[in-house]
Amino acid sequence: MRLSVLLSAIFAISTIQSIRGQGYNNLRELPNHLVKVFYSSGHEQRALTIANRVDKVLSYYGRILGFQPKVSLLILSATDWSIYTSKGAVYGMPHFNDKNILIVAAEDNAFWRSFLPPSDQIAPGLREQISSVYKSSDSGLSMQPFFDLLAVHELGHAFHLQGSLTMQRKWMSELFVNVLLHAYIAEKEPESLPALTLFPQMVVGGGSQEYKYTGLQDIEDRYNEIARNYPQNYGWYQCRWHMAAADIYKAAGWQVCKKLWDALKNKKEKLTDAELINYLDAEADKSVADVIKNWDR
């Protein structure tokens, strides 16, 4: 199975539906965290691990950006997932819904494991990297390390959605949260960088010949259509933005988070591409402007 096929669901739930449950009677509460945390019975340790990371992420972003969003966190078993998420939300896909709730799976699952191609279809050198980076606790393989970092990506959306930023482009909100994500991991959890970067490198390294849309204007004009009808293609865009975020961090460091935040917060009017390139170059960093300038090269 090719990597492009494995992208069919990974980023297709970028704007998730309303939560179904009205209360959390079936869940336990984990006190003493920066957000309200509720978890499925039997998963206290998993909830503690995720809640501790969310605390660190919120503290890190808050210090840099001078802003704290309001967020609740649910860590759900497969059974509770069907109660507290909308119909069609795949178990294992972290998402930030329209009620300011970050939802994360409590258990390893088939969805995570499905993104690892059969070992006999992976080049030997790459097989060794995958086996090392995406090893599960039972000595098997799982994409849990990557999906747990996608939860941090989703948390980043709370900042621009509640912080009154003018994102200029639909795709800029995804690049922005990936810049935040990469900066946090590089600065605070560098041991997790391989889990964050290997999968996007695998996808982008496979080329773009099979995708119908590859331009930034394509995704701007057809964002919802591509996410809904061409999820593999949308996943390729997301992996490009992950890699662009890594390049931005390498060029500009963590300080670019605040510069980009201020740039998007201070400019309310819609800019043309040429104006946006010049504005980002001057107010954020040349590496951010280069995402637009060099996208098709």
Explain what this protein looks like in three dimensions:
With 297 residues, the chain is α/β, with parallel strands linked by helices. The protein has a single domain (3-293), classed as Orthogonal Bundle (Neutral Protease, domain 2). 55% of the residues lie in helices and 6% in strands. It has a five-stranded mixed sheet with strand order 1-2-3-5-4. The radius of gyration is 19 Å and the shape is globular. Residues 12-18 have low confidence and may be disordered.
Overall structural class, as computed from helix and strand content, comes to: alpha/beta
Largest sheet: 5 strands, mixed
Shape: globular
**Proportion in helices:** 40-55%
In total, the number of domains comes to: 1
| Full CATH superfamily name | Neutral Protease Domain 2
Cα distance spanning the termini:
28 Å
> How many E-type strands?
5
Per CATH, the architecture is Orthogonal Bundle
Series of H and E elements? HEEHEHEEHHHHHHHHHHH
Which fold name corresponds to the CATH topology?
Answer: Neutral Protease, domain 2
Strand fraction equals 5-15%
- Poorly predicted residue ranges: 12-18
- Numbering strands along the chain, what is their spatial order in the largest sheet? 1-2-3-5-4
Please state the average pLDDT score.
89
**CATH classification class:** Mainly Alpha
Number of H- or I-type helical stretches? 14
- Cα-based radius of gyration, to the nearest Å: 19 Å
